[in-house]
Amino acid sequence: MATNEQILQQIQGMLHEIVPQDALQVTMDLDLMNDLNLDSLKVMELLEKLEDAHDISIPINILGGIKTVGDLVAELQKLTAP
Asked: Which residues form the Carrier domain (predicted)?
């Protein structure tokens, strides 16, 4: 199982692909939509990349609870736990 730091680094790399910003610092408290200005399509693109990378399916019903990078990391930890 990946650590929080490993998942955070993975998300950071994916976000750099989706939202190319030179000085983008991804932290656990970063708001996906407000701080990064991600629209729903870009959020879905990120989730698809994470699903492919971890060979999981992220249930749609949990998406309403994911506001920050930290929320996303916590959900990925749950979904990838043995």
From this structure: 2-80
